[in-house]
Amino acid sequence: MKWKGRRQSGNVEDRRGMSSGGKTIVGGGILGIIILLINVFGGENAQMITPVLEQLNQGQNQNTTEQRDLTAAELEEQAFVKTILADNEDVWSKIFEENNLQFKNPNIVLFNGAVQTACGNASSASGPFYCPGDQKVYMDLTFFEELKTKFGAQGGDFTTAYVIAHEIGHHVQTLLGTSAKMRQMQQGKSKAEANKLSVALELQADFYAGVWTHYNQQMNNILEDGDIDEALSAAHAVGDDAIQAKMQGHIVPESFTHGTSVQRKYWFMKGYRSGDIKQGNTFEELGLY
Predict the structure, then answer these.
(1) 193 Cβ partners below 8 Å, 6+ apart?
(2) pTM of structure
């Protein structure tokens, strides 16, 4: 991905290396994997796991991180994230303006280990997530090594760009009122029916990531050979069916909350090919209204 030399956003807060103190959930081992499966690409579901995180946190080791300077590699990562966020700001401001709407920029918080948010405390094991309470995306960038080594994604810079765009998609849903409407629709529904609505929300965020890619390619000519393959590899790796098959050996469709690998790739590519935000009504296409 061609990203260097372009505008960087001022809306990135880098907490890596800062002293955190207090109790944190150990990110490795089976506990970390379980939480990762619950909340990978967490989006609106981040709020749902907070009680789980806090309960599991009881009895875990207390970890204190001393403050340190960021490494050269971390500063490079920071510059990349700032550029991708700036791209999202520019693209979504343009799309909203084209639809007579006003876009409000989100923030991204980079952290190591654990973080406090308006949605509660979380650990790096929860994966990247968007908190609608403070309209911030939270990311521990070590997640991407886990995505590659444990779940078979290709890796690469466009994998990270896709994930960021997916989380910004949840911010778009918050601004448009889609997230609030989804939560209202979930009230009184069975667990399986509520999960279907969650799937629609997540697939729409994948669609918005594709729309962002379409616009950004037109505006900045960002793509290099293999970039779309990286995004599709990541989308495949985090499909509910792929994760369940790998981790538990069988698939339980009624427990899906993010969509299958095929669905996630389909909606990303639909957004990328069309560049038309109006073609992303996943709720209607899935027969939910």
Answers:
(1) 186
(2) 0.87
State the pLDDT at residue 93.
Answer: 98
Q: Please state, in angstroms and as integers, the Cα–Cα distance from residue 227 to each residue in 47, 187, 204, following that order.
A: 31, 39, 20
Amino acid identity, residue 163? V
> What per-residue confidence (pLDDT) applies to 61?
44
Neighbours of 139 (CB within 10 A): 25
CA dihedral over 277, 242, 229, 131, signed as positive or negative: positive
Residues with Cβ within 8 Å of residue 48, at least 6 apart in sequence: none
Average pLDDT, whole number, for the chain? 87
State how far the Cα of 71 lies from the Cα of 269, in Å rounded to an integer. Answer: 36
User: Residue-wise over 205-218: b if at least 16 C-beta within 10 A, else e?
Assistant: bbbbbbbbbbbbee
Centroid of chain to Cα 109: 12
